[in-house]
Every structure is written in C-alpha cells, then in structure tokens.
Design brief:
This is Thioredoxin family protein. It holds the Pfam family Glrx-like. It contains 4 helices and 4 strands; from the N terminus they run E-H-H-E-H-E-E-H. It is α+β, with helices and mostly antiparallel strands and about 100 residues long. Strands 2-1-3-4 form a 4-stranded mixed β-sheet, sandwiched between helices.
Length: about 100
C-alpha cells in the first residue's frame, strides 16, 4: 500500500488545485494500482506540528512519508512517483511472501 498525504488547509486555492491533480492522476491509473493508494488529507489548522513544519509550503504532498512536492504538483512527476512506489511495494510484498 502506498500512502499519499496532502497537507493543506481549508480555503487554500493551491491546495484545491493539488487535490484535483491527485484525483486526476489516481483516476488515470489502472484500477488495481489505484486501489493500492491510500490518500490522506491533513490540515495544518488541526495539527500544530504540521503547521510548524509546513505552514509556508502548503500544499505539501508526501508519498509514504517522504516529501514529493510543495506549492505546485506536476501530474507527470506525481504519476511517475506513484508508479515507482507501487512497483517497490510489489517487489517488497513478493519478497516478504517467500
């Protein structure tokens, strides 16, 4: 499972754009791949630690806890990163099941 986290806040235009890009990219993936992606949204208004880390960079996109992008999300780059993460998950899952 790949976890994509979008960190933003309400009434943030760039956050809305990032969410739309994420939705479009995931929708374009094959169903089996899309089902392996968990999308989590977090608000800097609800979490002081997130606010401290990211307030000046929202929206922030993390993939499996690692920074992928902030401010602007490029669809092609996001698609590539998600596909890489899914491939890595598949390899790890194969090794763990042996």
């Amino acid at each position: 499972m790949t976890t994509l986290t979008l960190i933003g806040k309400p009434d943030c235009h760039l956050c809305d754009v990032a969410s739309d890009v994420i939705d479009a990219v995931v929708a374009e993936l094959p169903d089996a791949a899309a089902e392996q992606i968990e999308i989590v949204e977090a608000s800097i208004q609800d979490d002081p630690a997130l606010y401290e880390l990211w307030w000046e960079k929202i929206p922030v996109v993390l993939i499996d806890g690692e920074l992928h992008a902030h401010w602007r999300v490029a669809p092609d780059r996001l698609r590539d990163a998600l596909e890489d993460s899914l491939r890595a998950d598949a390899l790890t899952g194969t090794k763990e099941s042996l």
